Amino acid sequence: MKLGQATIKDIAKALNVSASTVSRALKDYPGISNETKKKVKELAEHLNYRPNAVALSLRKSKSNTIGVIIPEVVHFFFSTVISGIEEVAFANGYNVVLCQTNEKFARELSSIETMLDNQIDGLLISYSKETEDFNHFQKLIDLNFPIVFFDRVPEIPNTVNVIVNDFQGAYDATKHLIDQGYKNFAHLAGPKNLTISKKRMEGYKEALEDHKIDINPEWMFHCPEGSKEESIRIIKTLYQKGGELPDAIFASNDIAAAGAMVALKDLGYQIPAQVGVVGFSNWQFCSMIDPPLSTIAQPGFKMGEIATSLLLTCIAEKDTSNKEGKTVILDTELLIRQSSQK
Amino acid sequence: MKLGQATIKDIAKALNVSASTVSRALKDYPGISNETKKKVKELAEHLNYRPNAVALSLRKSKSNTIGVIIPEVVHFFFSTVISGIEEVAFANGYNVVLCQTNEKFARELSSIETMLDNQIDGLLISYSKETEDFNHFQKLIDLNFPIVFFDRVPEIPNTVNVIVNDFQGAYDATKHLIDQGYKNFAHLAGPKNLTISKKRMEGYKEALEDHKIDINPEWMFHCPEGSKEESIRIIKTLYQKGGELPDAIFASNDIAAAGAMVALKDLGYQIPAQVGVVGFSNWQFCSMIDPPLSTIAQPGFKMGEIATSLLLTCIAEKDTSNKEGKTVILDTELLIRQSSQK
DNA sequence: ATCGTCACCGCAAACGATTGCAATAAATAT
DNA sequence: ATATTTATTGCAATCGTTTGCGGTGACGAT
């Protein structure tokens, strides 16, 4: 009745056959006469019959739906990943149910629960900044439930992950600043518990070490918020102290970099003449701000595509108890714009 | 077995009662002894029983899932709307399944089909640029299927819509440029078949008329792509022709405005001294570019929230044959930045 | 006339949960 | 001791679809 959607039973009744016959006829099973098949198919066509996906899910314990859990939708990089996910999912007949956690651990837990209740076939997840305990993931992994982590991946064994080469990206960015002749380096780092923050910091440090440049631990700042205001605050405080000051800033995200630039310009510094800045992610605004911000481009769309492909493979191979982990590392790209060209 | 999820039957078997008793005990139906209730609840708790949402959907013809169809995820405004949708849906125990159409009509059709197959309880939609025929919507409306349009709404009767006051926003933007003393106006309009494009153009025109300023039809350009490159092309072509030229540009979206600014700066024009520019939407980059772009802020998050609330009401009232349409119009806000202050 | 072999189709169980109705036993009333 | 109520539970159908197995009738073979 609702939506006027015809069911197999309706067809069966109208044709005076059984539901099983209709089902088989529609799928060209052997053992159904051509005449019956023809009648069934014609009526199905005429009634615009479409199988009820919910009934199928129940029957087959397969929903053709994947869950995506993401910290924030309003985030250039993540929205790009979602886009990639959407494309591959759609192309393979999968639906995507989406939850944003708003960086809340509790929300992450409850979203996963609901999704499992809804019998998703697999899960794509980038966990929240608050997440420090990975038991909820471990349980799923132990049950051999298909799950792929992207961008923010937990440090537990045998997981399937897709990340970018944060270390190399940070290394490239820092080396670029070094090559430009900057001498004193500061780093605006990401939230402490995220691996990406650590990796970027490591890349930053290693580039400095490789070029015999001192690392000043007082010039490394964690930015838990990742907001423009936060980095404006940090940079202003730093530069207003006077004394020796950094002439190069590598920020682990573009927003922080943009904030740093605002603060520096406010304080009368010339970018890139006096201070060089490089960000991370290549948000849309990077090419539009003044000066245009050099940054490390992350292939978000590709990440979404690959993560989804991997997940679909996991789903397909669920039974084959292939429990080994796998990590795909995507290359980043240094985009040199004005903010870092001395 | 899969996921180790216990079912009602498992509990029933373990306790040597019937499934119906378990079901009733769990929901505190009358007619079940306290002792039985206690045993059932304890075991359910212990087994971490969670009802299978798919089975419930099938039984109750209600999935607690809403579908969202959106042209693009990687779009500041739309991602903001999604965020609002997510929040309200989550707060009310609804799941969100998402499809992006990439502005393709065919994809819009097929996404709606799949969602209906999956028994979504309602649909939130902002249709694609290619969509010119609204039959697929009309069918759903005729069937009294809960559907709410946002931002891009079709011109058919008795629909429930949430839009921003595009007319007023455009009027405000244009009037602001007039007030600043600009004299010759150009408009970068959106895709022709979108109502928002029309409304914004009307607002633009009316502001000019109200102030006795001539409307030059040759200075109104439709931007089907809405890309930076497109508007760079258009503006460069225009300004390289020479002769009388506009000294004020109102663009119906920020990307086009940003493109116009790039083109103008390339050609050596001073913004805002020689040419004023105002955009539409308040993308994140507006406050970061040079000069900061004046624009019309759209309450995307609020739009998502309201659209979802309306949809949930429609779902709740589905049976009461309340077929009348409704359109919520949200106010925009003129954000005056440097790009338009002569 | 009996048997085997097909071609074709329906029954019923299953997926997990809900719910109207009937059934049983115990308790109370007469 | 019988009738009636009450408390507690189970049966079976239902949602829409799939699928193993069994059943029917026609046909040719012996």
Automatic annotation (TrEMBL), chains A, B:
One Pfam family, short name: LacI
Transmembrane segments: none
Assigned keywords, A-Z: DNA-binding, Transcription, Transcription regulation
Highest taxon of the lineage: Bacteria
Domain HTH lacI-type: 6-60
Coiled-coil regions listed in the entry: none
PANTHER family named in the record: HTH-TYPE TRANSCRIPTIONAL REGULATOR GALS, LACI-RELATED TRANSCRIPTIONAL REPRESSOR
Protein name, entry field: LacI family transcriptional regulator
Species name: Belliella filtrata
